[in-house]
């Protein structure tokens, strides 16, 4: 696996797994301890097949008490642990680097409660996002987040990585919608902050520290989350724009005219659409433009929403912002249009090796990075594409090549990070740092912030057993706490 | 001042202010050091006049560098500091308990930048909320929070206390809308997390720890905040309901029918309206109901919004949920209706001494606490009233008496906290714990969470100089870190 060579790390002096350890776990959770080489294999490699660990043990607890017992034991024995949800992460955060024990939330998939008056769902960490959404839809609600990996990703992993996705523009981030968490700390003690209150100002908001900490500060075992009502009317428009400037102007116009019903504003360049068509055989409803945007509205009154949308489209066409387009109001066509956007990641993997970047930038500069990168790399890259959540200032920059090469990576990095830092952007908008990006944190965070993060890590996980080699650069040698 | 007797605390062994200290500060910020007894007086007492400190010194820095120098000096000399914004807090968090130096943000009132494309405002901590909102309105935006104290409260104080207020139902909490913070830590070092990005997943979200920490972990010096567009149409309905059950059913109905344009759902009981009429001479548009609700819609199309609202009102009247009501669409009448709700706090102060409680509860049980308290206190209280942000499950329970009495307080506390804990509610939904509520934290937080909070405090402020005696109960004697 190429990236491991690049990001050379040394195994920390954790204990090695012994037969007695496995025997302990088998007594603790009989039948839910995976040791066979073949069976463990799938847990060792990430979805992109870009990083691979060599764990010999997967544990599948069903309860918080079991997670507590596992961590208490590992803490005592100095065994490293890799918490794993649906293993859909894109930065190598969800698989072991060496022989860490994999703690999978796959069997922690119970819905604990749902309150129809408040819209508050409480569930175990291993619930699959799409299953939760289906459950909620039956009751007239939806999950406040949605992403391409919804069919496999776990809500615990979503929270641990502060997943963004397609609904953030409308419903905000998990930092607002997650109301409570239950977390097991490195020493096995359970921290119960699983409240179901919209507002609670009694002391520091501890749960925030675990949101986005990528399993390095504690293992999330249950989540309380505020879910919005299912919109009565959904419309999707897929439009072609002749320049990125027009993509931006279309955004400003639609935000003003669609207002509170705008629920997504995604963009993608022509190359993305070519790849989706070529590799996945999806048919394209609109062609011949260098840029495309997908606009979604979600509202409570279909007549009003359609009127707002058609007023907007009329103006966008009349003023030349948009040159071509199609609109969908029925579920099937809406899904087809969303596929064109959601399946870009998948189409890219058919190209060969993919260098993935997930960047936050001031929205006006979003596509300059793609243009600059394309010019810089010339023919050494197969394709350089840009797409993403324009409404949130989030660019997904992807570069493909037949296979991995050191020299191409050297041409991309640290250029891409320096470029981003030059615009005060973030080198990880929503994917996290995981294993692959952790040494680049200083491009987006001042040294003092990194030191403070290391102090939190040292305080909450003094032995460093939780998801080692992830998120934070190696601690400096001097004492931190 | 009555509450000080109740919450007996002992002065911690901080250094006493000496002439040399004052001389140092006068060299650092000439003309912005307040020492006269009369001039300092107003900074020593809270808005409710319920707690009073005896500080002899107020410092008014203008820059982050000055705040750094002040804290570095105080840290070195072991001088305690009370950070103070607009001093509008309701739990005694914003005034000194003993002789802490008051660090006022009053002169840190500069707007640093505003970006019209993204709606992101960056400003110093001492900007007054209402001034910021006026500035934004000129550019077609609004602040994502609004509260009764807007004319005096500072944005830094709002963030430090995680203020909720009247727009939370629509725009979410500050945990989602605050994008970045600049904070000066106890030792004087400045932590720059003042990013202006909608999304940033590079490491732990440090700023969250300072949001709602009431000045005990650091002094917020600047804020970056995401502001929504100013709604094109605002409507307010003021309705009477014959029972609290109907208030709840009206909420469910209006949430379904108004959907994305619902921006506030406030309730108040008849007694509140009587007090507002009697003490403030406000005229009441609707009378004769035991409960009233104020519903606000904010949207982008006045025709659509009015249609949605009138459909809802028709149904609410036809089904007997609502028995009487009035609707406002022009600014002046909207302000008058909002006054009936916003000025309840002020009206209550005319009654004598006010015992204030700010409780989060499952929405269905919200008024049971008022009823139970009224029955419990009988004639020993002058009035027992309930109002608040029903849409957020937030009750403001207020009890008045001619003057403060120990025995009445004993009848209220800890009953009110036990009742709340029995429903897994929060004893402080939005006001914070400050000085007056800190010893009750265990009613809403498990012991382990409190210990963890104390560890964070010990790590970030090892000498405990920042806003001492606030938020957290006194640390147990054993070492914490």
From TrEMBL, chains A, B:
User: What are its GO cellular component terms?
Assistant: mitochondrion
- Cofactor dependence: FAD
- Family affiliation: Belongs to the FAD-binding oxidoreductase/transferase type 4 family.
Q: Which GO terms describe its biological process?
A: malate metabolic process
SUPFAM superfamilies hit by this protein: FAD-binding/transporter-associated domain-like, FAD-linked oxidases, C-terminal domain
Its keywords, alphabetically, are: FAD, Flavoprotein, Metal-binding, Mitochondrion, Oxidoreductase, Transit peptide, Zinc
Oxidoreductase as UniProt keyword: yes
**Localization in the cell:** Mitochondrion
Q: What is this protein called?
A: D-2-hydroxyglutarate dehydrogenase, mitochondrial
- TM helices/strands, residue ranges: none
InterPro entries xref list: FAD-bd_oxidored_4_C, FAD-bd_PCMH, FAD-bd_PCMH-like_sf, FAD-bd_PCMH_sub1, FAD-bd_PCMH_sub2, FAD-linked_Oxase-like_C, FAD-oxidored/transferase_4, Oxid_FAD_bind_N
Q: Which residues form the FAD-binding PCMH-type domain?
A: 51-230
